[in-house]
Amino acid sequence: MISAGILDRESPVPLHEQLAHNLRAAILAGRTSGGEPVPSTRALAADLGIARGTAVAAYEILAGEGYLVTRPGGATVVAEVVGSASRAVEREREAPPTQAPTLVDLRPGRPHTLGIADAAWRSAWRRAAAVDPAPDLDDVRGDPLLREQIARHLGRTRGLDIAPDEVIVTAGTSDAMIVTLLALTPRNVGRPLRVGIENPGYPRARRILHRLGVEAVPIPVRLGDGLDLDALEARADLDALVVTPHHHYPLGTRLDAVARARLLAWAAHTGAVIVEDDYDSEFPHGRAPLPPLHLLDPARVVMMGTLSKVLSPALRTGWIVASGELRDRLVATRTDLDPPVAQVQQRALALYLREGALARHTARRRRDYRHRRRLLLEAFAQVEGVELTAMDGGLHAVVLLPGAGPEVERAVVAELAARGILVSPLSGYAVPETAVDVPAGVVFGYAEPSTPLLLRAVAELIASVRAVVRASRLDPDTV
């Protein structure tokens, strides 16, 4: 039987977290093998003298981290990817020298999806699929029940007091951005729509603008300071601005209350529309969330949200929140383009939200991602010559290489790829041929792999960074 360790009932640490920590330590120490069943939650609770719910919560944490595998109708077992350090070394010695490294994709934007399809998920989809489809789409804004649940969800999580009529269902952020940009018109006749974008920022945003024939105006984002409001306030010719105020992608900065007031004052003065990407608001990692810009100025701010991070980008489901005239223009555009999300999917997600399953799933993921964040901070604490940043929210991190040049950045990314680990270069987020005051670095996500696989990949990442930085110091031409 796997050792559950000693639980300290006087400790401020909740019992389920203590239990998860002890079980995790036993698994990592190799005191159990991959595929070995663990006790049922009922048996474990009886053995330890704790509530069954405590055991269930501990198992949920470990399943979310990838240490346990839950099988519907069967026993919960230790994951095969987990093993003691000695067994890992033995496997490496036994492997043929020509064996290709295991591919670990740490490029950002990939949440951990293991365990989503639980009983609540399957029930919602089963009931949604059991209803005959409607003869036609009744409302281009989306299924009424889903819009109602999204409005309630945003009321609970983001403090928004909105009506379902102010919600438009989209196929994710890209679809929301396309609909929003098509709904806007230039204030000056004879020129294309002119939209400010963050630099560095979300690469797909500038590609969408290019496809739509929109003129993109890069607005600098400073490391540690966020959006350069002085540069923005010098522009009175923008029709709109796309911004991630809660957690900038990829630098991780956010706009404080003073910056938000300046931004909204600029929009009111110039007549520009703010397109707010409420990116990473689900995972603030301990810092108090600030209210959305839409809450502060609903008539001038279009807010985009998505289930991509909390569930999966593969679902292609999100929303636009807009009020007044902006809402009417967006609905007209959505009418011309047709709704892109299937009715069955919308109804299933509506049931999933209504019954609290999304809230429970998000709580489990928050515990998992906070744990992963702590492990990353510990792993990089003693690494010299680099800086780990963008860790105050979301599911990605940035490893900065102070003093290094683009050659060093490219070398680190190439070295990691040779080791079977995919990351993104920080320079890839800058608008080409613009001056960006950001050091070299790499961006990686820490949510998708199991925790053991993530830790092995991070160890490889640190080794690669150390090797390349050491080599660059010996060769000044690469710095």
Structural domain tally: 3
What class would the helix/strand composition place it in? alpha/beta
Give me the Rg, rounded: 24 Å
How many beta-strand elements? 16
Strand fraction: 5-15%
Q: Number of DSSP helices?
A: 16
- Tell me, what's the shape? globular
Distance between the termini: 54 Å
Per the CATH scheme, the topology name of the largest domain is Aspartate Aminotransferase, domain 2
Give the name of the CATH architecture of the largest domain: 3-Layer(aba) Sandwich
What proportion of the residues is helical, as a percent range? 40-55%
Biggest sheet features: 8 strands, mixed
Q: CATH-wise, what's the superfamily of the largest domain?
A: Type I PLP-dependent aspartate aminotransferase-like (Major domain)
The CATH class of the largest domain, by name, is Alpha Beta
Q: Work out the oligomeric state of the chains in this entry.
A: single chain
Structure description:
- This protein has helices at residues 15-28, 41-48, 52-65, 85-94, 119-129, 144-158, 172-183, 203-211, 229-233, 257-270, 293-296, 324-337, 343-354, 357-380, 406-418, 451-474, and strands spanning 68-69, 77-78, 104-105, 167-170, 194-199, 215-222, 226-227, 240-243, 273-277, 301-306, 318-321, 387-389, 396-401, 421-422, 424-425, 440-445.
- The chain has 479 residues and is α/β, with parallel strands linked by helices.
- It has an 8-stranded mixed beta sheet with strand order 4-11-10-9-8-5-6-7, sandwiched between helices.
- Helix 10 links the parallel strand 8 and strand 9.
- The termini are far apart.
- 43% of the residues are buried.
